Amino acid sequence: MTALLHHLEAVRSAGRKIFVPYLMAGIPDRVTFSDLLASDQADAIEVGLPFSDPLMDGPVIAEAGERAIAGGIGPLDAIDLVAQAPAGPPRPVMTYYNPIHHLGEDEFCRRVATGGIAGLIVPDLPLEESGSLRAAAAAHGLAWVPLVAPTSSPQRVMSIAATATGFVYAVSTLGVTGVRDSLSERSSRVVEACRAVTDLPILVGIGVSTPEQAHEAASTADGVVIGSAVVKRQVEEGHAAVESFFTAVRTALDA
Amino acid sequence: MVDEHGRYGEFGGRYVPEALMGAVLELEKAWTEAWSDPGFRRELDALLAAVVGRPTPLYEAKRLSERVGARVLLKREDLAHTGAHKINNTIGQVLLAKRMGKTRIIAETGAGQHGVATATAAAYFGLPCVVFMGSTDVERQHLNVVRMELLGAELVPVDAGSATLKDAVNEALRDWVTNVEDTYYVIGSVVGPHPYPEIVASLQQVIGEEARRQCLQLTGELPDEVVACVGGGSNAIGLFRGFYDDDEVRLVGIEAGGEGGEGAHGASITRGTPGILHGARSLLLQDDEGLIAHAHSISAGLDYPGVGPEHAWLARSGRAHYESATDAEALAAFAALAETEGIIPALEPSHALAYLLRSGEGIRSRSSRRPAEQKGTVLLGLSGRGDKDVETVAKVRAAATS
Ligand SMILES: Cc1ncc(COP(=O)(O)O)c(C=O)c1O
Predict the structure, then answer these.
(1) Beta carbon pairs, A and B, within 8 Å
(2) pTM of the predicted protein model
């Protein structure tokens, strides 16, 4: 069992819902980012590696990534930042595939694992193309976190869930990352489809924006990933606003 | 030549979010059925004749031939409806969209030719159309912006990244992920996840099939070289495919050399490395961490840091050869064609013309089939006309004389 899964299972068996906020690396600055990584409100923190062409991201995360790159933080610098951060919750990274391909799959996994990173989420690498990277991740003890979409056929949901070694990322809506007014009604259907084929934790992500939506999503899922709503505060308001948002989500999930 | 995983040798494949996998699999199935359906092919052929105006002529450029030092034949895609080869692809894809029951069309565009051609096909079939275009290109291809609007398309300017073709594709993909159930994405070149490169190449190969037949008719033999410009690579693949089995015909693709020297450029085959962009593994321009680089070319249609996987494979296998031409060379060639033949070409194929002006003399010596003193024959894909570029060229000229 991967360390990430072990950790999340402990949260689940304690009867709690899992909270995984997403942070863009190096935003608003290196020090604040590093401090946020130690938050005790989160069960794990998904770290976004900056990329030039983030096609699964809406404006909030895309612009935060552009800002990180403009500030001299590329994907490998981001890994180093995580490696140097104080102890805290497990940190899987979200990265597009080209930086992995460019460095080499095995070398990338080695570097990430050496930096204490817990797993990989690669949104533009579907089941059919991910075999060799999954093997490399496993060899380095990294958790694999695949995404299931509202458009995934039952057959695909089964095959995808079978590759998960961290959690299953249930995409709640059609579309890219972004802040939304309400939780998609597709959310619970995606969770149910995953539940039918896996015992691993199922987290709803993409389009979960408020503590209330988190609470609602967690009524069927084991927890939530919150991206744009966190990154918006990371960019515009800084440390205190992010922490108090974490607390609000935590409270809503524990209610 | 493409395998069941959508690969051309080590290139190609399908690197898309899970949310799009259902759509690309559905597209592959629908395309395979349509392409092998004689009814679909008959309907397409009729549209290519009536709407596009095919076949386009093969034109002997006599005065240019004298200047170049080789016999030059131009495949006149500039005479296709809307002024470029792009419409061969859009008519076919929108016909497919209709067959699949899709009710909304989206596209990206660089030079605006693909946007105009998609808007035209959508208008013909009565479907709503949204076109994404980098804001840099909105400015430098203003004529085509107006044309798209007249054709009833909604134009969405894209400010992200380099605000050019690459970023327009990103935005189109984001729209597709969001509206995948009713929307058909008409991609404009032989790029993207499988099956797109194969669909676009199949729809463009009519260029090469016609050109080969016309060349035999006109000259009694095959050309020594076949030359085309390469942005994403659709007009070049369409032309090259007509000659794949003719081993003695040299295939030459010309990329954007941009500023020249150490300056910015768009030469992803001659100067790029393997990577993943817009759903496929191919050759591309990137930095040492795998971030995609900004390309540069005076021509919006070649201003792209990637290239279709079939070209990467043709380059690797040695079947085709690739060189580049700079902005300055393309501008000179643009003027040369206008002056010698009375044809104003687009800036994209002006890059291929620049290669002719540079290498034309040498073409005869490469031919092993003829005595060395005889001139070689070059068949060049004139992919589009230059109305859209007149303002850009005028600005450069004004700057040069002031
Ligand atoms: C006239 C013309 N030629 C060539 C191109 C480049 O595209 P491709 O390489 O796909 O033919 C464009 C693209 O906009 C174009 O408008």
Answers:
(1) 122
(2) 0.97
